[in-house]
Amino acid sequence: MSATEIRIAIDCMGGDVGLPVTIPAALQFARRHPDTRFLLAGQPSAIEAALKSAGSLARAWYEILPASEVVLMDDSVEVALRRKKDSSMRIAAQAVKDGHADACISAGNTGAWMAISRYILKTLDGIDRPAIATSIPNVKGGATTMLDLGANVDCTAEHLLQFAIMGSALASIVDRREQPTIGLLNIGEEVIKGNEVVKQAAELLRGSGLNFYGNVEGDDICKGTVDVIVCDGFVGNVVLKSIEGVAKMIATMLHAEFTRDVWSMATGALAKPALNRLRDRVDNRRYNGAALLGLRGIVIKSHGSADDYAFGCALERARDAVRNGLLDGTTRAIDGLRQSLQAAAAAAAASSNASSDPAP
């Protein structure tokens, strides 16, 4: 193995499709990136058959990690974590834990993947709960990083602060945004708006040393007002699914209108280049690959319905995270902020003690 080789463990069996997507995507990716080696977790005979079908016989780019069980999309967390201890999910995460892989990825059951990854890898010091973060395309031609997207339904203000730290690190390290701006998702920009948790989180963010922009609203996500938007997992998941649903609805409507009659079809033919560019800009497959932040390893979650192209994009996110040192960078960011907060607390305590001393 070369010093620069990147090793990614794949849960090959997970997702709505499984092997017919994960294997071709990995093979195509390996051809583009010879420095990447894959650890394919799953049932060996099924993986070998998929490799043969994809046209790959050379073993230079992969190694098979045998797993006898598969976590299904409708399996409960208890089943995935306690009963299926030899699942492809668990084997992929264990490869990172053991140092055999630099990152792991699954398109399978999100709750199971989060639970297994957290159980195997544990959380970083200073992080209570991992968070799911992904990129959402905006009108500026870039993308807005948003978290949490479903891992944590009920959050405290301290959790939201931790999400902001991890999101800032992700945007800075992987997306190369210097001093990324942080927005707190709220029902209004005014300081007085929001529930008590959001108000407390805003106070913490203002004193955190992060580049806190302030409260932002739902439309700021697609405007690209800030680089990173923080919210709890309940709100984040609803927002994400709503955006995806609207995008699919618009695509369906456009197709219906441009195929309504012969004149509409002629107009559609003229508009096709512009429509193709628009499709490419809003194609959520390009942004597939959510990072599970706060764990002692790089963990990526792909959409369960991802095709070859989308899963390849998720693999790209995993590779970029490894190459750019996401784990080390996140750890440093957490440690740095914790030290800053401790210093600020000590200074405040010293000032309070000094003011309470009796005058001579």
Summarize the structure.
By secondary structure, the protein is of the alpha/beta class. It is built from 12 helices and 11 strands. Helix 4 packs parallel to helix 5.
Task: Describe it.
The protein is of the alpha/beta class and 360 residues long. It is 50% helix and 15% strand. It folds into 2 domains: 1-122 and 295-324, 3-Layer(aba) Sandwich (Isopropylmalate Dehydrogenase); 135-287, Isopropylmalate Dehydrogenase (3-Layer(aba) Sandwich). It is built from 12 helices and 11 strands. An 11-stranded mixed sheet has the order 3-2-1-4-11-10-5-6-9-7-8, with helices on both faces. The longest helix has 31 residues, at 326-356. The protein is globular, with a radius of gyration of 23 Å.
